[in-house]
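Collaborator request, handled under Task 6.
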Amino acid sequence: MLAGMRSDAATVEEYLERLPEDRREAVSMVRSAILERLPEGYAEEMRWGMISYEVPLAVQPNTYNGKPLMYAALASQKRHMAVYLSGVYADPDARQDFEEAYHATGKRMDMGKSCVRFRRLDDLPLDVIGDAIARYSMAAFVDLYHRGRRR
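Structure tokens returned to the collaborator:
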């Protein structure tokens, strides 16, 4: 797989194997940080060509697109790697806390609405990412999703 191409890998292991060595190492380290702090119940899957951490359909079957709710994701893109944080996207308080903690590390933040882009592992404060991952139990994230859908 070329970095940046949407992966058709069926498993996380296959996805990682296809990455160039430097990216494999960085993505694997971020993945470990996510798995260490991921609250109980979320499932790690391959979806949308990236590693996805999601609410299983058995828990929340009624979603806007019929797919599991994505809580977080990790991907190797063409020019960067990225962590996607749905809780930071959906909750203004979580976003403010995340941005303040990120800036306090002194690292340069390159972020879209939910996407935190990085080129090297050293660019990413793993403890801040871990705190964002640990922030929402699955039940709390499902509640956040429903509150957002009512707006």
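The cover message to the collaborator said: "The longest helix spans residues 21-37. The longest strand covers residues 69-76. Please let us know whether this matches your experimental observations."
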